[in-house]
Amino acid sequence: MGAHHGPAKGLTRWLFTTNHKDIGTMYLWFSFAMFLLGGSFAMIIRAELFQPGLQIVQPEFFNQMTTMHGLVMVFGAIMPAFVGLANWMIPLMIGAPDMALPRMNNWSFWILPPTFLLLASTLLMDGGGPNFGWTFYAPLSTTYAPPSVTFFIFAVHAMGISSIMGSINIIATVVNMRAPGMTYMKMPMFVWTWLITAFLLVAVMPVLAGAVTMMLMDIHFGTSFFSAAGGGDPVLFQHVFWFFGHPEVYIIILPAFGVVSEVIPTFSRKPLFGYDSMVYATSSIAFLSFIVWAHHMYTVGMPIAGELFFMYATMLIAVPTAAKVFNWVTTMFKGSITLETPMLFAIAKVFLFTVGGFSGLMLAIAPADFQYHDSYFVVAHFHYTMVAGAIFALSSAVYYWIPKWTGKMYNETMGKTHFWISFIGFNLTFFPQHFVGLAGMPRRIPDYNLMFADFNMMSSIGAFIYGSSQLLFLFNIVRTITHGKPVTDAKVWEGGTTLEWTVPTPAPYHTFTTPPEVK
Amino acid sequence: MTQTTDKNIAKLSIKLLGLVVVMFAFAMWVMPPLYNALCEVLGINGKTGQQYTVVDSQIDTNRTVKVQFVAQNNEAMPWKFAPNTSQVEVHPGESAHVTYYAKNTQDRYMVSQAIPSIVPSRAAEYFHKTECFCFNQQPLAAGADADLALQFIVDRDLPEDIHVITLSYTIFDVTEMAAKQDSVAAASK
Fold first, then answer.
1. Cβ neighbours of residue A52 under 8 Å, at least 6 residues apart?
2. Chain B closest CA to A254's CA: distance in Å?
3. Does B113 contact A209 at a Cβ distance shorter than 8 Å?
4. Domain residue spans in chain A?
5. Which of residues 185-214 of A touch B (CB under 8 A)?
6. I need a labelling partner for B78 at 20 to 30 A (CA). Which of A48, A106, A232, B145 fits?
């Protein structure tokens, strides 16, 4: 391989790169940095909630922490991490030499670091950073917002542009650059879930941009989209936000479904039990995600017909989701399973996501939701889906593919230790939150009734355990890169069947310059 | 990569970009009016409609409907604001006239806007206003007061089971908003 084909040297390699593997790597490291930043905000929240009363931070700052934790984790950690996986793996899995629009790919990544620097810098501005919750409901985010809200709005615009460019790139790649013979119904499941996710992103990120643009107009240009005094309606904000927000949660979870649909067959040494049903289930979830948004707003005073419609539509989502869960379980059934770290994370993801799915079903019941609404039960529910559902799948993906990326094997003992500490820490953090939520503890509150003290202390201890286990994760990754045992087999895992296991390990800088033939 | 692939990628990307533009336009210019239209047609958020022109003036003297008046101040609004009449009894189809009292208690010029809401919300579409101070912003000089007029007709098609209608006005301070609108309007001229 001549110098022309290898990576450039120095910092400019990363600044100007159009290579899908370089960009994937940058996305993954960036998202990990954001994961640690958002995690440290969570540690501040849990430290304050360790005991009732105000000990460490003031309520104003606490509100900024809950807001920034949500924003950074959703838009800075989870979404870019999955885009990073898509960049690395989609070309390898469909036998393409690179992404379809490599220059745009570079741009969509390099928008992110300045954007999050801007967002984080609002914490140091007069009046503090965003303090209205990651859902930024008007009028909290308009009439009553701190002056830094304008920077927040531009940050949301910029991350939206980045996501939209990333998604257009993914769709263009999957549609046009599959290897000869790879029909849609032969694509690996991870590629399928990302194709559908990318369509969701293209459809709803502009709606989010619309919501923040209307906020900007209300704040600076005298319009009243969300101001009752001028003939607008704050409830409209919630409709626009959740029309984006509900598909958004599937944007987060569908690629995670894709990851476990690769990992579970590999370590069960069996093909996916029902490939076709998995594709149809993913598509139906994506479609249904557009018609259930108002289940986040049962208490705004909707007419009964609306409540019933959104309740039934929401419960309907349990059907394709159950099809997926049964699919993973039946894939494992009678398989020759080995429990390497990626498989442990994948199984835990299936199990814990299902717990989150069940609490979701409880929340879907409109009359019951009037009690659960805005309580810690909701916090427990969405952390079971976001953390156990998405972050566990990401950990699984990193352990699964890191030998292919680096040509080194991670330390299995350390991987398993990371898993068990994460698993215990996670459940200790979030399971008690179901109980305090049902007993009436509201979310986003820095102080609480004495009766919630014990469970909150458990939660905080769990959070510190879970948080520190991520440092072990970081250490394991760095250690793998520097000291890992070299792997040379193309097929790192004996059960791997997709195309990435046909290229040499570590994956060379350029792969599939001549497309493989898929039978 | 072959040239046809390049062409296909370009075509698809432009289509997807089109979808992005359409969805942004949908959020900005379709969702808000659609939301208002739906609320009005279904009468679901208790908002009353715009100025009403009388189409026929027949009065249904067999029924009497009690209309109650309520006033509230938005938390940032210091004015004194109250109905002069707390309730009237009307026949459906009959025109009635009441007034609200407003006084600017501050030592500066202020502009207000009243926002109506009706309970039960089902009655909103049968409550017609031929004249209302809520159609416009109401300015008052420092310390000034005024009686604000409201003229309405309860529709003869009002469902039989509704005997009491409560009309509530919340008054907002829109002084800054009005100034901003003026400057934006002036700038665009």
1. A447, A448, A449, A450, A452, A453, A456
2. 20
3. no
4. 12-502
5. 202-211, 213-214
6. A232
- Tokens representing A394 are 């990401």
A186 in catalytic set: no
Q: Decide if pLDDT at A1 tops 60.
A: no
Sign of CA dihedral A86, A87, A93, A95: positive
Q: How many whole angstroms from its chain centre is CA B59?
A: 26
**Chain A residues with CB inside 8 Å of B26's CB?**
206-207, 210
ipTM of the complex: 0.90
* Chain A residue with Cα closest to B11: A172
User: Active site includes A321?
Assistant: yes
B32/A207 CB distance under 8 A: no
**Is residue A324 annotated as part of the catalytic site, yes or no?**
yes
Quick check: B172 and A229 CB within 8 A? yes
- Chain-centroid distance, C-alpha A498: 24
3-state DSSP of A328-364? HHHHHCCCCCCCCHHHHHHHHHHHHHHHHHHHHHHHH
Can you tell me the mean pLDDT for A13-28? Answer: 95
| Token pair in block for residue A410 | 């991670």
Convert the pLDDT of each residue in B152-170 to its tens digit. 999 888 888 999 999 999 8
Specify the fold of B65-180: Ctag/Cox11 (Pfam 04442) (2.60.370)
Which one, of A417, A418, A425, A355, lies nearest residue A386 by Cα? A355
Chain A residues with CB-CB distance to B39 below 8 A: 233
Is A163 designated active site? yes
pLDDT at B3: 76
pTM: 0.90
- For helices A453-483 and A412-438, what crossing angle results, to 10°? 160
Token pair of B26 as six digits: 């949908």
Indicate the pairing of strand B110-119 with strand B138-140. Answer: antiparallel
Closest chain B residue to the Cα of A99, Cα to Cα: B9
Instruction: Please give the interface size between A and B, counted as residue pairs whose CB atoms are below 8 Å apart.
Output: 107
Contact B166, B68 (CB under 8 A): yes
Token output for B36: 């208002």
Cβ atoms < 10 Å from Cβ of A187:
22
CA distances from B130 to B68, B159, B166, B187 (A): 18, 21, 18, 34
CA–CA separation, A22 and A9 (whole Å): 12
- Check CB contact under 8 Å for B177 and A229: yes
Q: Is A162 a catalytic residue?
A: yes
What is residue A515's DSSP assignment? P
3-state secondary structure of B185: helix
Q: A232 — contact with chain B (CB < 8 Å)?
A: yes
Mean pLDDT over A162-182 rounds to: 96
Chain A: residue nearest B77 by CA?
A229
Kindly list the residues from chain A whose CB atom is less than 8 angstroms away from the CB atom of residue B1.
97, 177
> How confident is the model over A258-313, as pLDDT tens digits?
999 999 999 999 999 999 999 999 999 999 999 999 999 999 988 888 999 999 99
Which residue is catalytic, options A324, A381, A383, A444? A324
Strands, DSSP E only, in chain B? 65-73, 80-83, 87-90, 95-103, 110-119, 127-132, 138-140, 145-154, 164-173
- B102 vs B44, residue with greater confidence: B102
Predicted confidence band of residue B46 (pLDDT cuts 50, 70, 90)? low
- Domain coordinates of chain B in residue numbers? 1-42, 65-180
Mean of per-residue pLDDT scores for chain A: 95
Nearest-CB residue to B13 (from A101, A203, A233): A101
| CATH architecture classification, A12-502 | Up-down Bundle (1.20)
Determine whether A510 is an active site residue: no
